[in-house]
């Protein structure tokens, strides 16, 4: 192996020291550099924990090696390596069994390793693990320069030290915040712009502008998938607390016996498993906003303690006699009818009134008219960038299908549906340079099924000559007859018919025009 190759490997390892990467990636790159610098068929990095060596990375060994553990006292070669501060070599005639025999990768029979070398690794003068090199041919390691090997061992120890330092800092950061950043602080981790200009969204945005600048508690209500979390982000971003954290708590995901600890924290030894003190979400949100999502799932027994914290601004950690004063703005969200929950005794009335000082109702997607297409454009652009497509659009049939659907899953359903459709399109058309169009067929929207007894005219018309119709023609015909029957039942009242069909009135009027439905047709069915 040339000096130049050794230098390249050293440069590779040194450059990795300044880069942040996952431990498994760092160690895999380290072993790759080792194989490029020294002649060997396999290498492994193993960490010592309680007299057991655990493989962290392997190269040239079979895949199952990574799932094995090596008890030091059962493997005398490993014991010999760990007792020495110098590289230890085992010749082909060594009587000590090799732990890697039969584990060399990409060979058809279980060949024995004939040249072996190992080095003990030390961090802060304490044994950390071992680095091993193995070869099938005897004498492979005769030409290794001991100085070069020692230099690489020092680099290996430096890489381990850097990795442990990064993990320690991350652990300390997580401990201070008691949660992963992506789960706790959702401020600035996602968009706060609410897309849409329908009358219902404009009215809601005006309400948000009014309440955002205050410190009033806000209760966000709406169906599942309408974007209540996005509304909470919007309020926080427009408030005077925008530079402070927005702390997220999913009340539905908390085990009942841990709710108090999650919200208020606990002291060490407060209960079984409390190995250390923990800061609660109220304290983490001090100066900022606490977002209590799915507040309707809060256990009834916990509600008085939550109410007291909201009233006094004081929280008490589990197991502590001290109170901590907090300054927190509360935003809560639910898809339940909390007033009904109060009436049925499942939610405290005083807590409900404390949370709903300023209620905000998020409209369902079916009431937002052509906002559906604006949102579709947003999600399509996200998918286009993520999948590396040059151009992505909706054809007219897809647009009409999106507008006609009632979206029981709201914005979340729209997002997931479009993601699936784009994947189908990419699979069918590849990632070519031409403009790629999503069709109604790719959207695969659920189609309402209707029996002959429920709609004899629609059934008869669709069956008659259906073989000669395209999907678009059949869909239009189905919609046309369904709307005519609905108008007839509602005495030609367009608003009532739109409500029955779950459509926005403006969208319904445009649909009537496109399908050329007039009063005479409705009267003929009355």
Low-confidence stretches: 177-190, 448-468
Strand order of the largest sheet: 3-2-1-6-5-4
**The first-level CATH class name of the largest domain:** Alpha Beta
Query: Helix count, per DSSP?
Result: 21
- Tell me the total number of β-strands: 17
Structure description:
It is a single chain. With 526 residues, the protein is an alpha/beta fold. It folds into four domains: 3-173, Beta-Lactamase (2-Layer Sandwich); 184-363, P-loop containing nucleotide triphosphate hydrolases (Rossmann fold); 367-443, Helicase, Ruva Protein, domain 3, CATH 1.10.8; 456-523, Arc Repressor Mutant, subunit A. 44% of the residues lie in helices and 15% in strands. It contains 21 helices and 17 strands. Strands 3-2-1-6-5-4 form a six-stranded antiparallel sheet, with helices on both faces. A five-stranded parallel sheet has the order 8-11-14-7-15. The chain has a two-stranded antiparallel ribbon with strand order 9-10. The longest helix is centred in the N-terminal third of the chain and has 32 residues, at 146-177. The protein is flat, with a radius of gyration of 33 Å. The protein starts with a helix and ends with a helix. Residues 177-190 and 448-468 have low confidence and may be disordered.
């Amino acid at each position: 192996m040339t000096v130049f190759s050794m230098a390249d490997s050293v440069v590779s390892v040194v450059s990795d020291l300044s880069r942040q990467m996952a431990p498994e990636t760092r160690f895999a790159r380290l072993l790759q550099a080792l194989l490029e610098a020294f002649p060997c068929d396999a290498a492994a990095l193993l960490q010592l924990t309680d007299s057991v060596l655990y493989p962290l990375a392997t190269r040239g060994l079979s895949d199952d090696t990574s799932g094995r553990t090596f008890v030091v006292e059962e493997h005398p070669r490993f014991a010999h390596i760990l007792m020495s501060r110098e590289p230890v070599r085992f010749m082909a005639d060594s009587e000590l069994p090799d732990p890697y025999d039969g584990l060399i990768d990409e060979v058809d029979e279980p060949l024995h390793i004939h040249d072996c070398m190992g080095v003990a690794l030390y961090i802060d003068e304490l044994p950390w693990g071992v680095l091993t090199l193995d070869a099938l041919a005897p004498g492979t390691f005769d030409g290794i320069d001991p100085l070069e090997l020692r230099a690489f061992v020092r680099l290996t120890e430096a890489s381990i030290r850097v990795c442990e330092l990064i993990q320690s800092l991350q652990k300390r950061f997580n401990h201070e915040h008691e949660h992963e950043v992506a789960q706790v602080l959702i401020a600035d981790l996602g968009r706060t712009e609410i897309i849409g200009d329908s009358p219902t969204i404009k009215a809601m945005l005006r309400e948000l502008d009014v309440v955002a600048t205050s410190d009033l508690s806000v209760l966000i209500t709406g169906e599942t998938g309408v974007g209540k979390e996005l509304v909470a982000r919007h309020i926080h971003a427009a408030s005077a607390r925008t530079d402070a954290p927005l702390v997220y708590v999913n009340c539905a995901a908390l085990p009942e016996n841990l709710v108090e600890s999650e919200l208020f924290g606990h002291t060490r030894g407060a209960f079984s498993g409390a190995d250390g003190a923990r800061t609660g979400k109220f304290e983490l949100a001090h100066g900022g906003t606490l977002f209590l999502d799915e507040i309707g799932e809060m256990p009834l027994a916990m509600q008085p303690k939550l109410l007291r914290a909201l009233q006094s601004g004081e929280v008490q950690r589990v197991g502590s006699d001290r109170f901590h004063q907090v300054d927190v703005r509360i935003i809560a969200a639910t898809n339940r009818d909390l007033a009904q929950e109060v009436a049925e005794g499942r939610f405290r009335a005083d807590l409900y009134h404390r949370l709903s000082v300023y209620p905000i109702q998020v409209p369902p997607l079916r009431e937002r008219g052509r906002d559906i297409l604006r949102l579709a454009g947003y999600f399509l652009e996200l998918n286009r960038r993520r999948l590396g497509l040059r151009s992505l659009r909706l054809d007219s049939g897809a647009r009409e299908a999106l507008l006609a659907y009632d979206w029981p899953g709201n914005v979340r359903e729209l997002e997931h549906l479009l993601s699936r459709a784009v994947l189908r399109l990419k699979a069918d058309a590849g990632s070519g340079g031409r403009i790629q169009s999503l069709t109604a067929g790719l959207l695969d929207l659920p189609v309402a099924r209707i029996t002959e007894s429920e709609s004899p005219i629609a059934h008869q018309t669709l069956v008659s000559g259906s073989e000669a119709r395209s999907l678009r023609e059949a869909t239009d015909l189905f919609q046309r007859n369904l709307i005519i029957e609905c108008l007839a039942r509602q005495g030609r009242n367009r608003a009532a018919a739109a409500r029955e069909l779950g459509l926005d009135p403006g969208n319904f009027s445009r649909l009537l025009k496109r399908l050329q439905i007039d009063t005479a047709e409705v009267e003929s069915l009355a």
